[in-house]
Amino acid sequence: MATKRPGEKSSLAAGPTDTWQSGAEVQETLVYMLCCGQEAPNMTESNGHRNIMNRNHQVPVFVPRGRTEGGWTHPSAPQQTTTPTVASCPVSAPYSSRSPGSVEMDEIMAAMVLTSMSCSPVVQSSPQSLNDPVPGPSSGGGDMECGGGDMECGGGELSDSGSSGYWSWDHDNVSPVLSLSVIEMDSSPDDGLHTELEQGVELNVAKRSKSSFRGAYRCLWPSCGKVLTSSVRMKRHVRVLHLGSGSEQSHREEDFYYTKFSCKAPPALVPALSSHVPWASCGSPPGPGPGSCLQIPSSTSSSPSGSGSSRPSSGPGSTPGSGSSRPSSRPSSGPVSTPGSGSSRPSSRPSSGPGSAPDQPSPLSQSAPSSFSQIQTDHLYQACTPLQVTMSCHNPAPCCWTPPPLTVSNQHSHHNSQVVRGRCRSVSIGEQWLQQNSATNRLTTTRAASPSRSHCSFRKGRGEAKKCRKVYGVERKEQWCTACRWKKACQRFPD
DNA sequence: TATGCCGGGAC
DNA sequence: GTCCCGGCATA
Ligand SMILES: [Zn+2]
């Protein structure tokens, strides 16, 4: 209602953003990767063999170099990463005693080595990937997956289920710790810096507590399953790419569009996932901010019932996005949703669509930033579905998330390829939702309550979430998600 | 009253 | 299959 988000946008202008972003992001990515490579460096700390590791650890040192760039990266953030590392690092001793010159050299060397070592596409081809989400001519193959075994970075994003996973579950796995942080973060919706900081802490905690846990933020924007490790970046991502502009409202809205989750997945799942992840193979559009590569740790386990995740506060602030929040509201967010009642809805995650991939906010988006992508989305919603990736993980185990069989359509060159270079996949989830909902789910429901016709039409109360209607207002109906326009259950802002 | 959306129907 | 809308439940 409050109309559009006026100000702020300029500062976040896509162009510039990308620029500095690349620097910072890359760095961050680096750091993260290092961590990935060996969870919680500080923790591992085994005295002996640490050569390589040491080297790696030094990197963070070099990383900060760029921290000055963005106002974003809070100084403390890098510091945190760095400090402990250096301290714990055996090498640090000699290191400090050396002359500054050599030190620098070392840093540089280390950096170089690292850089060359890292297989991250982001790092290696950051410039390109940043702007050009679409990998190459043939985005089809799983080319992007870095061959390197140690870190599989999906180029910065991982998202399970991709489009379809959006609204879904994986939140289950959020560890208590993480959830906590989530809450905190939510409480301060609009301050990026602060968040970043917390993010840092959070990450640390995560690493520390369990090397296997990883907090990540996934963009819930329809069709954009982007996953970033930093909430700030995610916000930025949402704001820039999806919301298009910023302003008071967008601040809050950002929260709506992403969700935090931490995943851990059995080794087996990892590969599987990656193969399924649409963009992973299609060269996921790293978008402006290549998120740090996210990966699903293999070891873990745990995680219990994900349900725990708390939904911070239903209010707009926290929103659906925040982490596990969503699931909590759902009956059995988990895997097989036996819709005791919610019947259809639960299982078919309301996800929405697909969408907007991170294409650069070119002139196009300027005029109607948010609407653009949204509209696009909506169209996709009804659009066809060239490619279809079917994810049917009937995984009983309460692992990361067991999505119901869902189909994601991946449409590449489809549609205006020029306009949407980065758009590598679009899902007509909405449609699917409608269909499935009416078909599949209904089936389920029926099965559950076979009775002649009892079919309790159960109307679950109105969710607290603001739906398109409320968000955009009637006057901007065209921005509503298709479902809303059709007076169906909103998919963009599912309860 | 405004909103969300089920159920049904037109095309 | 897509799209719309009557009408009811809810806030
Ligand atoms: Zn909607």
Question: Secondary structure elements and their pairing?
Answer:
Layout: H1 14-37, H2 41-44, H3 51-62, H4 76-88, H5 92-97, H6 100-117, H7 121-124, H8 126-131, H9 162-165, H10 176-187, H11 192-209, E1 215-219, E2 227-228, H12 231-243, H13 248-257, E3 258-262, H14 269-276, H15 278-282, H16 325-329, H17 344-347, H18 363-367, H19 369-382, E4 387-391, E5 406-410, H20 429-448, H21 468-472, H22 482-485
Antiparallel strand pairs: 1-2, 1-3, 4-5
Helix pairs in contact: 1-3, 3-4, 3-6, 4-11, 10-11, 11-12, 12-13, 19-20
The structure holds zinc ion.
The structure holds a DNA duplex (11 and 11 nucleotides).
GO biological process, one term: regulation of transcription by RNA polymerase II
Subcellular location: Nucleus
Protein name: Zinc finger protein 395
Structure summarized in a few sentences:
It contains 22 helices and five strands. The protein has helices at residues 14-37, 41-44, 51-62, 76-88, 92-97, 100-117, 121-124, 126-131, 162-165, 176-187, 192-209, 231-243, 248-257, 269-276, 278-282, 325-329, 344-347, 363-367, 369-382, 429-448, 468-472, 482-485, and strands at 215-219, 227-228, 258-262, 387-391, 406-410.
With strands numbered from the N-terminus, the spatial order across the biggest sheet is 2-1-3
How would you characterize the largest beta sheet?
3 strands, antiparallel
In round numbers, the mean pLDDT is 42
Helicity level: 40-55%
Task: Provide the list of bound ligands, each named once.
Answer: zinc ion
| Overall radius of gyration | 22 Å
Fraction of residues in β-strands: under 5%
Order of helices and strands: HHHHHHHHHHHEEHHEHHHHHHEEHHH
How far apart are the first and last residues' alpha carbons, in Å? 19 Å
How many strands in all? 5
The structure class reads mainly alpha
Residue ranges: pLDDT <50 for 5 or more in a row? 1-101, 115-214, 263-457
Q: Tally the helices.
A: 22
Inertia-based shape: globular
GO cellular component, one term: nucleus
Region (Disordered): 1-21, 68-101, 284-373
Domain C2H2-type: 217-247
Main location: nucleus
